[in-house]
Design a protein that fits this description.
It is a single chain. By secondary structure, the chain is an alpha/beta fold. The protein has 3 domains: 281 residues, 2-enoyl-CoA Hydratase, Chain A, domain 1, CATH 3.90.226.10; 158 residues, 3-Layer(aba) Sandwich (Rossmann fold), CATH 3.40.50; 175 residues, Orthogonal Bundle (N-(1-d-carboxylethyl)-l-norvaline Dehydrogenase, domain 2). The chain has 29 helices and 19 strands. It has an 8-stranded mixed β-sheet with strand order 12-11-10-13-14-15-16-17, sandwiched between helices. Strand 2, helix 1 and strand 3 form a beta-alpha-beta unit. The two termini are 36 Å apart.
């Protein structure tokens, strides 16, 4: 009982303060024992007037223990079901106590934490932005299995509960109040427990306060049950909408929808058993293993600084210079200013720089119009950005980020003319997506202070930054880039130098393979659709149109100037396609008048007939599974090569980078994690089959054989 501090006051109110071993309260074996013991003691308590659940931690309750969930294997479903049954039994006993039970929510209550709150009669939260409530399990390939699906449907109604369940929406106390997820808020932590006690005392003559809504006589689910005509349209359309969104690759949303509908159809206890079965099934799926491993454990590792040099003092960025006010530069200026950093936005003319600043004003104006920002805050952020054409305004920057075209001569010229304005010990960052940092650093007088800081477009939305270390990049420069990335609330991965680094290099294999498949005679639309079928955000031809064939052409010219005639020796088909599309037909991509597709003013998109005339062969018959595996395996193999050659420093960086920077299918957990649950031996064998049929680019990298021999996986 030591982890649950049990105190009864003179008014008969028992306060249970959760203070479990470790940094947070979690739904593990320790919790299960403490909860069972506490509920038994409460049931036997004499003179009880109410119960309060509180937390001694900054977080109210962190949810399920993901180590336990990750360890669950197929064949263990019965034991897992028994564990869930015991948890739910305690929660049901708790909500059937003859006195009000109150949650005093001092910090985040997510997943199992909010499920505990739902099992109490009254929920009071500290009204602060650090307090988040919700059921985000779907983001880990799971469903809320501690009663979350069933109770939320009964509390809010099926239609209103679904966004929280299917999207894993997390909300502040203010929004939770409006939604009906909690009952009241307090403005200070000091008020929380006194208010909880006061509420209990106020209910002395109100026996209904101790009865959950769904246990009251005549209870009806808000909005009607699953058989209600009002919900007919929702229930008819929801599965189709879900299938369109998940493409059948993610089992968790489907299970959640099924459980939610059953919760709106059946009695509470029966629905709770169905919910348990759903979680017992999901917890053993490879999708859940992949998503838990990457989106929780590895994400925490990456954001927690595993790749940051140890022993280097925190490197706060106070003044950043952004060179180039185009699409990338204006985005970098925006995210920096929003983080409170002074920004010097420089371009070749003041007009160009002011146009770049206008991008920030436009984004902030949207926030103001939606009530998410005040005019005063908008003005404060805008005042941090100084548009200029004068190099001297860069004086005193502790970080300068160059964001100009991918031209090595231009980048070198800018480095040499402006790095003098950095403050003592200031760092130079290049926002290049492909050019080697070591080579770019040759133009610098201090290559140890030169690093790659690769943003993704659009900068304001994309959460990842790829930090690239050159041969001479110092630990201080890396720490500065890392800390700046966290300062602007982005996720940093750290890689070593290489042409294309990790993300651009791997991403390129996706549309390269798509082009190869088209040149073999497969219909371009089918090729694109099968790319989406594996879970990529869009097909390979669509994405190449978006990033532009023209960019591919220019990059090839730059590499040729550097003596690289064929990137990684595997791009002949892509180069020939670019020559056909641009050289012969002037089709450079969507923003160059069209590429593989023709784009109508009404938003329509149709395949360019010339592509079909040149390549499509109705007699070609490559099976769908081969096409899908080719599009996926090319990227996985390139990622493995990056790890094998130390371009990737860690597996976590590879998984997080492939998901957040490349758009790797969520169900894979990242391109390296995919190999783990696919099975290393099976992956090696499939690579062999593909290599035999389609070429040596599918040969399995040696690192897989090494892991097999060592009995290891990619961790």
């Amino acid at each position: 009982m030591s982890v649950f501090k049990y105190e009864k006051d003179a008014d008969g109110i028992v306060t249970i303060t959760m203070d479990m071993t470790g940094p947070v309260n979690a739904m593990n074996a320790e919790f299960r024992t403490a909860m069972t013991d506490s509920v038994a003691k409460l049931e036997a308590e004499q003179g009880l007037t109410g119960v309060i659940f509180a937390s001694a931690k900054k977080v109210f309750f962190a949810g399920g223990d993901l180590n336990d969930l990750l360890a669950a294997e197929q064949g263990q479903e019965a034991a897992f079901m028994e564990m869930l049954t015991n948890i739910k039994s305690d929660f049901r006993k708790l909500e059937k106590l003859p006195v009000p039970v109150v949650s005093a929510i001092n910090g985040a209550a997510l997943g199992g934490g909010y499920e505990l709150c739902l099992a109490t009669n009254h929920r009071i939260a500290y009204n602060h932005k650090s307090v988040q409530l919700g059921l985000p399990e779907v983001g880990l390939g799971l469903l809320p299995g501690g009663g979350g699906v069933v109770r939320l449907v009964n509390l809010l109604g099926l239609q209103d509960a679904l966004p929280y369940l299917l999207e894993g929406k997390k909300v502040t106390p203010e929004k939770a109040m409006k939604a009906g997820m909690i009952h009241e808020t307090v403005e200070t932590l000091e008020e929380l427990l006194p208010r909880a006690k006061a509420y209990i005392l106020e209910q002395k003559d109100n026996p209904e306060a101790a009865v959950q809504p769904w246990d009251r006589k005549g209870f009806r689910i808000p909005g009607g049950n699953a058989n209600s005509p009002k919900l007919a349209q929702v229930l008819t359309g929801a599965p189709a909408m879900l299938a369109q969104k998940t493409r059948g690759l993610l089992p968790a949303p489907e299970q959640i929808l099924d459980c939610a509908v059953e919760a709106a159809r059946l009695d509470l206890d029966t629905a709770l058993r169905i919910e348990s079965r759903g979680l017992a099934y999901l917890v053993t799926t490879p999708q859940a293993k992949n998503m838990i491993n990457t989106f929780f454990f590895q994400m925490n590792k990456v954001n927690g600084g595993a790749s940051r040099p140890k022993g280097v003092e925190p490197q706060l960025t106070k003044k950043v210079g952004v060179l180039g006010a185009g699409m990338m530069g204006q985005g970098i200026a925006y995210v920096s200013a929003v983080a409170g950093i002074e920004v010097i936005l420089k371009d070749i003319s003041v007009e160009a720089a002011e146009k770049g600043k206008a991008y920030t004003e436009k984004l902030l104006e949207k926030k103001v119009s939606r009530g998410r920002m005040t005019e005063e805050k908008k003005a404060e952020i805008l005042n941090l950005i100084k548009p200029t054409a004068d190099d001297a305004d860069l004086q005193g920057c502790d970080l300068i980020i160059e964001a100009v075209f991918e031209n090595i001569e231009l980048k070198n010229k800018i480095t040499q003319s402006t790095e003098q304005y950095l403050c003592e010990g200031g760092i130079w960052g290049s926002n290049t997506s492909t050019l080697p940092i070591t080579q770019l650093a040759e133009a610098s007088s201090k290559p140890e202070n030169f690093i790659g800081i690769h943003f993704f477009s659009p900068v304001d939305k994309m959460p990842l930054i790829e930090i690239i270390c050159g041969d001479k990049t110092s630990d201080v420069a890396l720490a500065k880039a890392f800390d700046y990335t966290r300062q602007i609330k982005k996720t940093p991965i750290v890689v070593n130098d290489s042409l294309g680094f990790f993300t651009s290099r791997t991403f390129g294999t996706y549309f390269d393979e798509g082009v190869r498949i088209v040149t073999e005679g497969v219909h371009p639309v089918k090729t694109d659709n099968l790319g989406k079928a594996i879970g990529m955000p869009v097909g390979p031809l669509t994405v190449h149109d978006e990033v532009s064939l023209e960019l591919t052409r220019k990059a090839a010219e730059t590499w040729a100037d550097m003596g690289v005639t064929d990137k990684w020796g595997e791009q002949k088909a892509l180069n020939e396609m670019v020559q056909f599309m641009i050289g012969e037909n002037g089709r450079g991509g969507r923003y160059h008048g069209g590429g593989y597709f023709e784009y109508g003013a009404d938003g329509s998109k149709t395949i360019w007939p010339g592509l079909l005339e040149k390549y499509y062969n109705a007699d070609v018959n490559i099976c769908d599974e081969d096409i899908k595996d080719r599009l996926l395996f090319r990227q996985v193999i390139e990622t493995l090569k990056c790890l094998q050659t130390n371009v990737l420093r860690t597996v976590a960086d590879g998984n997080i980078g492939s998901i957040m920077g490349i758009g790797a299918p969520v169900w894979t957990g990242g391109f390296l994690q995919f190999v783990n649950t696919y099975g290393l031996e099976k992956f090696q064998a499939r690579c062999g089959e593909l290599a035999e049929k389609y070429g040596e680019r599918f040969e399995c990298p040696q690192i897989v054989a090494d892991k097999i021999a060592a009995g290891e996986t990619f961790q």
